[in-house]
Specification:
This protein is mainly α. The protein has 22 helices and 5 strands. A hairpin with a 2-residue loop joins β4 and β5. α1 (about 1-35) packs across α19, α6 packs antiparallel against α7 and α6 (about 130-155) packs parallel to α9.
Length: about 525
């Protein structure tokens, strides 16, 4: 308990107070400056310049971190799955099978996530077969949420400077930045789909709603829960969207249940939805978890003493000054699912520093825009004040907790956040030097026909090989592996032994050094 309190006061509380102070300064400035009229074309030009700058920067940094070997498991599993689909092998991943301790060693990715969206993504991969393309695609998809937020905000606030604030706050949102710059992940593809489906509901366009909604459901099984909320929101609206919302809610529920209780268990040796373990403290099944949440409030209340949990919850809404919580029925779009993440066992689920909550970001920003629109209709001065405060808070939180070049951790190596084992987003991690080039030369020597055991930082670069496994130790390598590659100059928390012991053990299994350059070692049997 003392450690939790210390974490809260030394990290989250100080950050919250700093962001609130910046929000107050922004509110004072916004009250005096945001009343100036603006030409609509100029406003759109300013926004799209900001958007193209952010999307281009994120894509470039994401690709750069791939080439400097700072993308790991998630990127490797996702890219290998898409690569195999593109080659007609099906959605299989030897990396994922190894990480999940699957005895088949080449399990279907669909036992892990129901990601039908990877089939159209594989068509794009056939045209541009490279991991950097997919990494850049993920960053751009995350950035696309700001375009939808801007279109919706423009319809609510008109051609005024405050219309820029919610989409800009979205681009400054730490969760959005982490999702764009960390691993390539399927949830990135869900962001524009859910955002455009929301815009279709707002503009009462049923055909577009179904197209984007179905695309969102195809991304992952847990996105179906957000689809349920989107259907509820559509059903709440009067007019033609009501029946479409009801039908979509039923379809999303059916898809989630079928994927998690029929399709994925059949393909998996675990016979259960793997994410269920994140909520095992609430029950052993979906129904038990729902029953615990709604009928046993004491169990949920017992989790409320976690200062880290509350710190992340505060920072989730703080850039928008908690305005989304005042948006009425719009809270249906994010609050129930955020509550589900909030009661999860793992920090990864409710942390602002990871990607699980990023599909909610467009809805949160849009809800803040709705509140600004209501304030503008009743009290314009208060709307300007709130918009300025939102800009100040977003800027401050991006500086303190963000991941891009505008953040402290990009420039100060000791400014590490959450539970990262290394300063992952520091600028040095994007520098391609002689050591990285030496590693590239070694990896280029590995042929697609080889079966490779590799350190986790090399995995995304070897998905072209027939099978790739995580190199824990020589003893854990499958018998059919004929190649091993690692970097003896780099710390590796996943290695079960030291590098000297690893080389000795590999030699004992019949491997010998085929190439070595600047500490990067390639061994073949």
């Amino acid at each position: 308990m003392e450690a939790a309190v210390e974490t809260f006061f030394s990290f989250y509380l100080q950050g919250v107070l700093a962001v609130l102070a910046a929000g107050g300064l922004g509110a004072w400035i916004g009250y005096r400056t945001l009343s100036c009229p603006v030409d609509p074309r100029r406003l759109k030009t300013v926004f799209f310049c900001l958007w193209f700058g952010a999307a281009g920067l994120w894509a470039a940094l994401a690709v750069r971190s791939l080439w400097t070997y700072h993308k790991y498991f998630d990127t490797a599993v996702e890219v290998q799955t898409i690569h195999n689909i593109a080659l007609g092998r099906g959605p299989i991943s030897s990396i994922n099978a190894e990480c999940m301790s699957d005895p088949d060693r080449n399990a279907s990715y669909f036992s892990y996530h129901a990601c039908l969206a990877y089939y159209p993504t594989a068509l794009l991969y056939r045209l541009f077969p490279s991991a950097p393309m997919l990494v850049a695609l993920g960053a751009v998809c995350v950035a696309l949420g700001a375009v939808v937020v801007f279109r919706l905000t423009l319809s609510l606030l008109g051609a005024t400077w405050p219309a820029l604030i919610p989409p800009l706050a979205y681009l400054l949102y730490p969760t959005v930045q982490y999702a764009a710059l960390w691993e390539f992940h399927a949830l990135s593809l869900a962001v524009p789909c859910l955002a455009w489906a929301l815009l279709a509901v707002w503009k009462e366009r049923p055909a577009a709603f179904w197209i984007w909604g179905l695309l969102a459901l195809s991304v992952r099984e847990d996105v179906a829960l957000m689809g349920v909320l989107l259907g509820f929101f559509a059903a709440w609206r009067a007019g033609p969207m009501r029946r479409h919302g009801i039908a979509f809610t039923i379809l999303a529920l059916a898809h989630f249940w079928t994927a998690t209780h029929v399709w994925m268990p059949i393909l998996s040796s675990r016979q259960e939805w793997w994410q269920m373990r994140m909520f095992s403290h609430l029950g052993g099944s979906t129904l038990e978890i729902a029953r615990t949440v709604f009928t046993r409030p004491g169990v949920v209340a017992g989790m409320l003493g976690d200062a880290t949990r509350w710190g992340n919850a505060a920072l989730f809404f703080l850039p928008f000054l908690f305005l989304p919580l005042l948006a009425g029925r719009w809270t249906l779009l994010f609050l129930p699912y955020f509550g589900l993440l909030f009661v999860g066992r793992d920090l990864a689920f409710y942390s602002i520093f990871l990607y699980y909550s990023v599909p909610l970001a467009p809805s949160v920003a849009a809800s803040a825009a709705v509140v600004l629109g209501r304030l503008r209709a009743r009290r314009p001065a208060l709307s300007r004040t709130a918009a300025g405060g939102m800009l100040g808070a977003s800027l401050a939180q991006s500086v303190l907790f963000g991941a891009g070049p505008g953040s402290i951790q990009f420039w100060r190596q000791e400014w590490t956040l959450a539970r990262f084992r290394e300063p992952y987003f520091h600028r040095e991690n994007y520098i391609l030097g002689p050591h990285e080039r030496a590693a590239a030369r070694i990896l280029a020597m590995i042929k697609p026909s080889e079966r490779v055991g590799a350190a986790h930082y090399f995995l995304p670069h070897l998905v072209r090989c027939e099978r790739v496994y995580l190199l824990h130790s020589a003893a854990r390598l499958p018998d059919d592996v004929d190649t091993a590659v690692y970097d003896a100059t780099r710390a590796n928390a996943y290695m079960a032994c030291g590098y000297d012991d690893l080389r000795r053990d590999l030699t004992g299994r019949g491997f010998s050094v085929a190439a070595e350059d600047d500490g990067v070692v390639l061994m073949r049997r």
